[in-house]
Amino acid sequence: MITKFIKRILRRDPMVKHTQANNTGAPKRIPKKSHRIDPHLLSKNAVKVTHTLQQAGYEAFIVGGAVRDLALGISPKDFDVATNATPDQVQRLFRKARLIGRRFQIVHVTFFGKGHPEIIEVSTFRALLDNAGDHVAESGRILRDNVWGSQGEDAARRDFTINAMYYDPSSETVLDYHGGMADMQKKTLRMIGDPAKRYREDPVRMLRAVRFAAKTGFELDAATRAPIAKLGTLLNDVPSARLFDEILKLLMSGYSWKAIQGLKDAGLHHGLLPLLDHILDKGEDSKGANNFVKLALANTDDRIQSGKSVSAGFLFATLLWPDLLKNWKANSAKGMANIPALHDAMDDTIATQSSGMTIQRRFESDMREIWSMQPRFERRVGRYPFRLIESPRFRAGYDFMLLRCATGELNSAIGQWWTDFIAADPTGQEELMASVKNESGNNTSPAKRRRRRKPKSAAPPESAAS
Ligand code: ATP
Ligand code: MG
Predict the structure, then answer these.
(1) Can you list the alpha helix ranges (DSSP code H) found in 38-194?
(2) 80 assigned to active site
(3) What is the pLDDT of residue 307?
(4) Active-site residue 237, yes or no?
(5) Contact 242 CB / ligand 1 (< 6 Å)
(6) Contact, 35 vs 174, CB < 8 A?
(7) The whole model's pTM is what?
(8) 290-339 tens-digit pLDDT
């Protein structure tokens, strides 16, 4: 009997060690007076989800980035909930609940309110995986991890200490497993566990480190930063779609320029966007491109920080524009006509980009539309302006053109002309077109063009020719 008992203890021993090694012990309970989370910043729907789950006898907490942002006094853009209920059990409790994903099965609970519908992502506590078995690739990258676990294990799987806090809206208590709150006070971004091992499991965590550092203004803890220089190349093994999602998050963080500088400092920009290689490596050589991108990103950051929407297609169109312009000029120098030269340059630019990180198709078509509209802004007579204004993506093309004016790439009088044209009544529009006809060296009217035998411009527009 006693030997049996001892054997059982011995068998359990490795399990105990495993738990301690990953620090899945009791969390620190942080009461309201210490964390100072403002309940007004909570999503009512997220609170509804935790209440419903708790009423049904489960544990449920707001978790991850939302708790981090709440503790920083920022209104979170989305809310995640973690629970010990399984996805099926969660789904049964809500009317509008959908099971999502195969690898990570989670539940999306949707609420329809006045504005956009709000989706609360509910995930079940996940288990820690050891390095054995078929879950981990040779490089250490986690391949499959749909195994449920305890809250402590769930916390240890998360990336940074500040992303591993659980907030219970009912008791207004934060459960902190890894000293996240102390790190918040020290303004430190610290990886949970052994950083090198965690980056090997999921190299995207390196990009996340840079993104969160830019967003919070926190410093990367030395041990968290150190392995990145050596492990950066592991990003090459990450599927392109995942990389794209993370880069998009980085660009849409509201701190994109800072984050891009962070990528450079960490040596992580290579191969993500050719443009980043150009700009960040060549520095002074590409000052013009640098200015354009800087302005575009500052513009994006402003919009995001003031709660406006940003189109990813537009953003990538700006990021790749300096590259496109270079290709366009090169094609024109070879004697290609202006528009074919542009289209050929678009193909080249996108192909080069795809060799690093493929941009999703739906964004690619937006980019093409925005780009191909650009020469059309210089045709300001006859029916051309009216046709252009009716394009479904006119607004994006126009904003893009204004950006080109702001960096001096395009004559700002053209930007002003379009701003006036949009606001003018039909008589005003006629007058504006007449003013173009009177300018020398401007585009000709369709009637004049028909009379001419050869098309006028074999050269790119002012922008590309300059
Ligand atoms: P954001 O403000 O961008 O939404 P976030 O921290 O909420 O930041 P998400 O990608 O929404 O980021 O992820 C939610 C939470 O899931 C994170 O806070 C973290 O705890 C965990 N997490 C996400 N991605 C990873 C990862 N690659 N490795 C470990 N944990 C992760
Ligand atoms: Mg989030």
Answers:
(1) 44-55, 65-71, 87-93, 151-157, 180-186
(2) yes
(3) 83
(4) no
(5) no
(6) yes
(7) 0.80
(8) 778 888 889 899 989 888 888 889 999 998 898 899 999 999 999 999 99
Query: 133 CA to middle of ligand 2, Å?
Result: 30
For ligand 1, the distance from its centroid to the CA atom of residue 278, given in whole angstroms, is 30
Distance 163 CA to ligand 1 centre (A): 7
Rounded Cα distance between 61 and 83, Å, is 7
Pick the CATH number of 312-440 from 3.40.50.300, 1.10.3090.10, 2.40.160.40, 3.40.470.10: 1.10.3090.10
Query: How far is ligand 1, taken at its centre, from the CA of residue 81, in Å?
Result: 12
Separation of first and last alpha carbons in the chain: 90
Point out the catalytic residue in the list 69, 154, 159, 323.
Answer: 159
215 exposure class (CB count in 10 Å sphere: 0-12, 13-18, 19+):
buried
Position 287 scores a pLDDT of: 60
Backbone φ and ψ for 38, nearest 5 degrees, come out as -85, 115
Spacing, Cα 109 to ligand 2 middle (Å): 15
Helix or strand holding residue 287 (H, E): helix 287-305
Query: Would the CB of 65 count as within 6 Å of ligand 1?
Result: yes
* Annotation marks residue 285 as catalytic: no
- Best probe residue, ligand 1, of 69, 81, 104, 158 (max atoms within 8 Å of C-beta): 158
Query: In this prediction, what percent of the chain has a pLDDT beyond 70?
Result: 80
378 pLDDT exceeds 80? Answer: yes
168-175 average pLDDT score: 97
Q: Is the pLDDT of residue 375 over 50?
A: yes
> What are the structural domain ranges in the chain?
1-186, 312-440
Nearest ligand, CA 123: 1
Note the pLDDT tens digit of each residue in 116-160: 899 999 999 988 765 434 455 666 555 455 678 899 999 999 999
* Banded model confidence at residue 462, pLDDT cuts 50, 70, 90: very low
Q: How many CB atoms lie within 10 A of CB 427?
A: 8
Ligand 1 atom with least separation from CA of 202: 27
Q: Residue 98 is encoded by which pair of tokens? A: 């959908």
- 456-459 LR contacts (CB < 8 Å, sep 24+): 457/337, 457/338, 458/332, 458/335, 458/336, 458/337, 458/338, 459/332, 459/338
Ligand 1 pocket member 202 (CB < 6 A): yes
pLDDT exceeds 90 at position 195: yes
Contact 198 CB / ligand 1 (< 6 Å):
no
* CATH fold group of domain 1-186: Beta Polymerase; domain 2 (3.30.460)
The stretch 255-281 carries a mean pLDDT of: 77
The yes-or-no verdict on residue 210 having pLDDT over 90 is yes
| Arithmetic mean of pLDDT, 253-267 | 89
Give me the pLDDT at residue 360, please: 80
Question: What is the C-alpha to C-alpha distance for residues 28 and 157, in angstroms, rounded to an integer?
Answer: 17
